[in-house]
Amino acid sequence: MSSFLQSFLNPKKNFLARMHMKAVSTRLRRYGLRYDDTYDQYYHMDIKEALNRLPREVVDARNQRLKRAMDLSMKHEYLPEDLQALQTPFRSYLQEMLALVERERKEREALGALPLYQRTLP
């Protein structure tokens, strides 16, 4: 069943998945974002931990992309066409670190160790 689901969601095999990926890519290019920029660090603590482990330059570039996207959105504008062509919305920078953090968390849970972080309310 899972292989069927994976083939259904694979853009190379499914026309609808390919259309969805193209639509998401277009929307991300308009604002100069990458797909990993859409992950919210306040939604899941693993994402926050993964962002903390990334190099400072990568996090700074992410913050700059988010600021630029918010600025363009508030102005009801898009990036110029020449800059949109240079964007790489599906180049991942967070997935590998996020997978590592999730694997470490699951290993700690399996061993019965205390969690690395607790969710706290501000």
Task: Indicate the topology.
Elements: H1 2-9, H2 15-31, H3 45-53, H4 56-75, H5 81-86, H6 95-111
Describe the structure.
- With 122 residues, the protein is an all-alpha fold.
- It has 6 helices and no strands.
- The radius of gyration is 17 Å and the shape is flat.
- The N and C termini lie far apart (42 Å).
- 11% of the residues are buried.
Which features does this protein show?
122 residues; mainly alpha; flat
Given the C-alpha coordinates, what overall shape results?
Answer: flat
Find the structural class using helix and strand composition.
mainly alpha
Query: What kind of sheet is the major sheet?
Result: none
Share in helix = 55-70%
Report the portion of residues in β strands.
under 5%
Total beta-strand segments:
0
Would you list the SSEs in sequence order as H and E? HHHHHH
Rg calc: 17 Å
Tell me, rounded to a whole number, the average pLDDT.
89
Unreliable runs, pLDDT <50, ≥5 residues?
A: none
Please work out how many helical segments DSSP would assign: 6
Distance between the termini: 42 Å
